[in-house]
Amino acid sequence: MKTKTMGIALLSAAALLGGAAAQAELPWNYIEGGYTKADGSESFDTHAWDIKGSIGFASKWHASLDYLDGTTEFSSGPDDDFDGWRVVLGAHPQLTPNTQLVTDLTYYSYDFDGGEGADGYGLGLGLRHGLTDKLEIMSEIWYTQTNVDDSFGGGSFDVYDTTVQVGGRYNWTPEFSTGLTVDLGGGFGGGFVSGDTARFDIRWSFLGDASDSGSMSDSY
Prior knowledge:
This protein is mainly β. The chain has a single domain, classed as Porin (Beta Barrel), CATH 2.40.160. It has helices spanning 2-17, 210-213; strands at 30-38, 44-57, 61-74, 80-91, 94-96, 99-112, 117-130, 135-150, 155-171, 176-184, 197-205. The termini are far apart.
């Protein structure tokens, strides 16, 4: 709990101190590809690739769809492949010229080899802040409830997770950026992979009307 509180406090302080920085654009219209690596051990290792599209609309709203394909590799026995999708609908009202409050609802569904599956929903609350026109930071707390269908065990069970998500993004150009996001305490946003995860992404943003993208300035 201490780590979660500290992460939110640090981002809040950065948002307050960053008021004098040049206005930064925080677009919500983009497409990106990502690679995620989860905490592993000597007996297994989990990683995944994904593609995500996001759109901003009605000035303060956004929606995204993410498709993920991954594998858990075991030191003994066959690998376990999985794939699935996640949809997010949220709002991003402006708090300061460079800071947005982010509230999200999500639903996700994943399938595994052997007929297993997992689906669930979650709530997110966080901040997105442009330190400069080149550097962005974010933090979000997620609560998720996941139903896991265990075909081998003959039943299903629910997993409840609270995950802290922190990340940073560097804008190489107004459209092209790279980002790193770390999930502490969950896994792939769905909770079915335990432990911490790290995701690296490459994003192309479509900069347009601020009323659609959620941006805060016309250009860098």
